[in-house]
Amino acid sequence: MHSSSISYHRIKAILARPYKWIGFFQFHTCFYCRKVGFVSKKLSCEPISGFYDDPFVNIRFNAYFSSFSARNFNPGSHSLSSFGDHNGGCQKNGILNFDEVEEEEGEDCCDDEDDNFMVLNSCNVNRVQTEDVWRVELEEDEFRHPLVREICRLIQLRSAWNPKLENDLRHLLRNLKPCQVCAVLLSQVDERVALQFFYWADRQWRYRHNPIVYYVMLEILSKTKLCQGAKRVLQLMARRGIDSRPEAFSYLMVSYSRAGNLRNAMKVLNLMQKAGIELNLAVCNTAIHVLVMANRLEKALRFFKRMQIVGIIPNVVTYNCLIKGYCNAHQVENALHLIAEMSSKNCSPDKVSYYTIMNFLCKEKQVKEVRDLIEKMAKDSNLFPDQVTYNTLIHMLSKHAHADEALEFLREAEVRISN
Questions:
Q1: Helix, strand and coil in the chain, % to nearest 5
Q2: Which end of the chain, C or N, has fewer beta carbons within 10 A?
Q3: How many angstroms separate the CA atoms of 355 and 19, rounded?
Q4: In this predicted model, what pLDDT tens digit does every residue of 394-409 receive, in sequence order?
Q5: pLDDT higher than threshold 60 for residue 188
């Protein structure tokens, strides 16, 4: 080893007490067979040998020091997830402590009764209710951009990566716009590969993810059971000082729910409260959806009533979640009653409201009731059956092995279209 190289024991001692070395040793790693270090604010660079014995050593060192660069090295402070003081941000001096979200994999029950509902009591009744969900809409051109395609090609070659390929990928990454980074993530067939690329990019020098990239990554993970990945992305947002909107926590809740962990999903609400982030309608809808998917209809109804008491007015998405819950519980009469109640609450049902009930009726082969519901949909809600309606009915009947009834609706649809 080179005489001035840092030994294993010295590295181990430095990593054990990084805050004592911050003035002397801020960054020390290997890039392309050269040792690079910042010592007393001076840059040293000298060649070393044997680097290609482990060509990805730079990735591991970058990963470690990238995480330390976001930390507070004050020895009296041990919080690694403090929110930054960003005026106008969605969190106010809150601290995310994910240790309070217990890891109970496979937990399919929630015995805390209404403990998770106490967070609703802290809502400001006089606040202005907003229903918008923060989403990133990408144009199709972003996915066809040459830089996006080239990065996707290099990612597919990850099993054969070498320093040259990684250097090419790093150079392309720094030339990407935030929407193009999102396009790269959304283009990955395997969500785990997208998450690995997200982590790798976050560790790169002279690059930081735009806030929209975090939300796109969370949205991708919300469609999977990778709840640990979603939790870590949310932690990274806190470490990097990225404003956490309520929707970010909604994505984590859904991911926990998909993993069958209802208890941890509902504990996210308490985490939001302690971080100083106020619930909005979107998060409440997510909570009701999570409870319904876990067959906790009674608790979903209690949450529904409690949110109205604190001034959060339900919308059509809220009612559709409850309609889904009633149908799952084979309480179709209650679902129809809820649709009738929506009009009096100044919230008109949409086609999804009716399609949800139709799905249950098709499963039970109640074709007459389906036709009655179609008439009710047109008469009461001024929603007339169209091609989507018939396609939905045909699909539902076929899915549940009711071929004759599906064929009947197919012929009816052909007559309507021809006219």
A1: 60, 5, 35
A2: C
A3: 59
A4: 999 998 888 888 898 8
A5: yes
**What are the C-alpha distances in Å from 93 to residues 89, 106, 242, 286?**
10, 33, 12, 25
Residue closest to 127 by CA, chosen among 252, 266, 264, 310: 310
pLDDT at 64 over 50: no
Assign 336 a pLDDT band (cuts: 50, 70, 90): very high
User: Is 152:184 a contact under the CB 8 Å cutoff?
Assistant: yes
- Which residue has 């597919």 as its token pair? 156
Token look-up 């496979």 returns 106
What single DSSP character describes residue 139? P
Q: What are the structure tokens assigned to 151, written together? A: 């990065």
Which residues, including other chains, have CB under 8 Å from residue 175's CB and lie 6 or more apart? 147
Indicate the pTM of the whole model.
0.72
Kind and range of the H or E run holding 193: helix 191-202
3-state class (DSSP) for residue 18? helix
Are 373 and 357 in contact by the 8 Å Cβ rule? The answer is yes
**Amino acid, res. 201:** A
* CA angle, residues 88, 212, 125, in degrees to nearest 5: 40
Q: Kindly report which listed range (78-82, 122-126, 207-211, 291-295) carries the lowest average pLDDT score.
A: 78-82
Closest C-alpha to 280, from 84, 150, 90? 90
Is the confidence at residue 126, as pLDDT, over 90? Answer: no
193-252 pLDDT, tens digit each: 999 999 999 999 889 999 999 999 999 999 999 999 999 999 999 999 998 889 999 999
Cβ-contact 102, 267 below 8 angstroms: yes
- Supply the pLDDT for residue 127: 56
Buried-state track 270-296, b at ≥16 Cβ within 10 A, e below 16: bbbbebebbbbbbbbbbbbbbbbbbeb
* CB within 8 Å of 337: residues ≥ 6 apart: none
Residue carrying the six token digits 């909604």: 250
> Are 313 and 284 a contacting pair, CB within 8 Å?
no
Please check whether residue 110 is in contact with residue 296, taking contact to mean a CB–CB distance below 8 angstroms: yes
